Amino acid sequence: MSILHVESLSKTFGHGELAVRALRDVSFSVEPGELMALLGPSGSGKSTLLLCISLILEPTAGRIVMNERTVYDNAWMGVDVRRFRRENIGFIFQGHNLIPFLNARDNIAVAMEINGAPGRSARERASELLDYLELGRRADALPANLSGGEQQRVAIGRALANSPPLILADEPTASLDTGRGTKVMELLKRIARERQTAVIAVTHDVRMIEGFDVVWHLEDGQMVEA
Known about the structure:
- By secondary structure, the protein is an alpha/beta fold.
- The chain has one domain (about 5-225): 3-Layer(aba) Sandwich (Rossmann fold).
- It has six helices and eleven strands.
- The chain has helices spanning about 45-55, 80-90, 105-115, 120-130, 150-160, 180-195; strands at about 5-15, 20-30, 35-40, 60-65, 70-75, 75, 90, 165-170, 200, 215-220, 220-225.
- The strands form two sheets. A six-stranded mixed β-sheet has the order 7-8-9-3-10-11, with helices on both faces.
- Helix 3 crosses helix 4 (about 120-130) and helix 3 packs parallel to helix 5 (about 150-160).
- The two termini are about 25 Å apart.
- Pfam families: ABC_tran (PF00005).
- Keywords: ATP-binding, Nucleotide-binding, Transport.
- It comes from Candidatus Muproteobacteria bacterium RBG_16_65_31.
- This is ABC transporter.
- GO terms for molecular function: ATP binding; ATP hydrolysis activity; transmembrane transporter activity.
């Protein structure tokens, strides 16, 4: 059973002569625990695809099925979008998007509290994730007092907080040095294998996708298997 099935997904920006087709009939499936990498130049549609899968950006056409439930079908939304994202998807953005007045621990814990976890257990789990990301000593630091790499690692911990069945990672190691980036990718691989969490990662660094199960190239909005 696929965690995610995408069928003939398209996204067009603008209308008429100014229309730009960012995605063109993209189709693929992702299995539980599968690691999928998306490669391609800037402007090829990689980030747009992740935003459409998570329904942050509404597709123009196509179908999205998550855990055998149709969540989008040619402009029809089959779910409460916010609840769908909260319960099913962990999103790692290029920018950290942390809450500026919460410390590192609470930025992770709040994702679990919104999903119904008691505050104490949420903070304990957040502390564990910070330790995995080698940020335990920075748990009480506000985002403004963290380096760019530290901010991104906190954002990665937040994405992992609710143990979602699918993680979408848009350049998750872009602000990290090679050593830290490799450790982050190894953590994502371990989560995928141990918890059967599917991971779709966009990256420009082919060194970061060693051990991934499937590698796709996006070219002019179309998927080409590597």
